[in-house]
Amino acid sequence: MDETHIMQSLVGVTLSRAVHGGMALAPSLDHQGSEDDGRKQDIGDILHQIMGITDQSLDEAQAKKHGLNCHRMKPALFSVLCEIKEKTGLSIRGVHEDEAPDPQLMRLDNMLLAEGVSGPEKGGGSAAVAAAAAALGGGAENSIEHSDYRAKLAQIRQIYHTELEKYEQACNEFTTHVMNLLREQSRTRPISPKEIECMVGIIHRKFSSIQMQLKQSTCEAVMILRSRFLDARRKRRNFSKQATEVLNEYFYSHLSNPYPTEEAKEELAKKCSITVSQVSNWFGNKRIRYKKNISKFQEEANLYAAKTAVTAAQAVAAAVQNSQDSSSPATPNHGFQLKDEEFQLDTTESKNNLLTSMFTASSGSFSLSSSGDMFMSMPSLNGGSYQRMQPNNTGQPEGENIHGIGQAAGYSEALRGHPLYSPNGLNGNGGWHEAATPSSVTSPAEAAGSIHSDTSN
DNA sequence: AATCATGATTTGCG
DNA sequence: CGCAAATCATGATT
């Protein structure tokens, strides 16, 4: 509106100046199409005419202007204009000196900074990417997505900066032009420096609103990019083998109560480089799918139970130093061969210590309330935190104690197949294990027995 | 391409 | 809010 008007006059001024200053327009158009002389002649004629008109009108305008400036009534007119202006008092009207920070703009700025779009060239960006990666879970396997994400982010950043610079430049240019124009006009009408300042302020505000739009759309683009890359559902990745291993180990060793506490979830999440909610998801899925048909998971259960058992057995062996048994030379892992994986005893140390103390303290039966969870709770260093009694399974702990040997019952819960329960799940009351498989499990039962005897003696 | 496996989400309950 | 169950959606396998 106003600006366009100003712009037009501004263009007029600059053009007239350029022409008046002796800049020839002809040369730039002269050297094209040199083959057709007649036509060139025509063009030349037209050009001459145009130039003539321009010169003429310019001179005319200039003369008029000069005449006006030199008119004897001019000072009087000027003073009248000043008076009117002062009376109407529209000189410094609506000057927003307060420079409102605009919370929304601040928000956008902060976000862009956090996303690494603005701010330091690479540092912030990679940090944001790293955070995104952490949220996504998984360590090294999704580095491809990282680079993809980073590339796209860099692209956005590039566009953002280019546009921002363009706006900045355009703003400055325009401001300069307007200021020149106003200064020029101040000779014929009263314009105070304050007014020029005000005008500049208006221009800046206009441009900053455009900038905000840019920031807004950039933010939007980043959000879309983020959601696209972080929406795990769209790009589902299987957990790493090791993570599944850890989770399964926990699950099967806590089969009687596979509900990890918040702390346990955090621990598992850390171990598996996944998020806590992913751990929760995993256990949710696992529980439901295990329960749905246990037979399908029997093999897996045996495997992990065996693994735990052997792990424990090894630990026990190490602790006891084959001092007291020797009564059962049968090979400990007879019934279940560990397939291929080796299990890391990263916490063997603590386990050994604990087992040692257990054994040295008492060789009899341990009346630990939830011995079933014992062996897995050991490595977690915070011992009892995993033990959460399920109100429904009232019969369980005692049952294990009936067994007499806490350790054996502990790590071979799955192996035993819960012989103490009625086959078809005595608890239809909604508790875990209402459909526990009967002792069908079994084949490794002897193995459990062997270990049992191993350790108990 | 069918099918299964599996992680994530939605829905409904207490 | 945490869970179970149903469901969706994608990855892997055949």
UniProtKB/TrEMBL annotation:
The keyword Transferase does not apply. Residues 38-231 form the PBC domain. Residues 230-293 form the Homeobox domain. GO terms for molecular function: DNA binding; DNA-binding transcription factor activity, RNA polymerase II-specific. Residues 425-457 are annotated as: Disordered. SMART domains: HOX. It is found in: Nucleus. It comes from the Eukaryota. The keyword DNA-binding applies. Residues 232-294 bind DNA. Its main location: nucleus. Pfam families: Homeobox_KN, PBC. Belongs to the TALE/PBX homeobox family. This is Uncharacterized protein. It comes from Pygocentrus nattereri (Red-bellied piranha). The lineage of its organism: Eukaryota, Metazoa, Chordata, Craniata, Vertebrata.
